[in-house]
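Entry 12.
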Amino acid sequence: MNDLGIELLTQPVSTKELIEATYMEAVVREGVFPSAAFKIAVPKLWQVETIGADVFPDPNTPAVPIARFTPGRTSAHGADMDAKVVVYSVFLPRVLNGSDWLRAFAPSQGLKLVGMRELPTAYGLMGDAVAYAPSTGRVHRLLTVKDGDLLFLIDGSVHAQGNPSAPGLQEIGLMAAMRFTLLSPSGQHYAEPMNALEIRAKSHSASFLVPASWDPVQPVDTPPDGAAVHLLHLQDEVSAGSLSAVLAGSGNTTAEELEAVFLAKLRRQGFQLSEAEPILHGSRGDINFNVVQYRGFLRDQERIVLSLRAHANAMPFSGQIVSASDEANFEQWAINRRVFEIMLETLDISML
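Predicted 3D structure (tokens):
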């Protein structure tokens, strides 16, 4: 628990009967650009102001508050707490988890995140959070929703009135978040064009998706009868991320041994690396996998190595992303983290 005693509310505190008597479904089509049309739950007797159908986020104005809901009468639920729900639309043309975007956005708005969970979706991990604004005394209940190169933030807030830990303060925002639905979603899971990358060994192949913005370079350390690929993500002609993947030529080696070859190469380049930190393990279809992380330094700059160890059809696969750490460059780390997740989510290993 944080020093304010605020816990993330995940279920309404009111009874089902009271919820049904208090809330209504609001549909917003007019006053927002077409692909931003949505429905949401807000208390009855509330009103909405929209920004206009000709206003949308772009590179110059990446975050736009497209709709603002407030009590329409003093007798409406939440009026005594100065409650409001604001829906933002954000231009986010890079693969990025909504949870990571929220971690960066909240402090820029004077919000202190005091509780968060990451919700897995086909669009990445979405942020479901509670925050406190010291300058205003407001408690904010927040949720991100991703669709293609747009991200939507549902921000329901009330004045804490000196008791920010009261669970009921989050209920209006939670109801808005739970019932938020885009009416015309694009269905595009990724914010940028993706390429299907395939590497072919003697008897097996491995394929996965990578952003088209990552450029292939000449791979090294290809095992006998195996295959390898190396890609770089360049920003201003400087590497902001590096992805390497190796498919063994036979089942006589392991993914851990393939990883060890890669790590030895990094150490020869001057990397100082920690011991492996377990992150995730599981299976998907025929693929069994483990994810580990290494923290380290290169020329006094903090680095992260995310490593995937996978096996399918008795054939090992090893994939790594080398990135700035989250402390050194949060944006680079967040993008690289999502690219690594996409490799894991879309990896297929099959017989030729």
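Annotation: The chain is about 15% helix and 45% strand. Residues 194-351 form a domain with the Protein Transport Mog1p; Chain A fold (CATH 3.40.1000.10).
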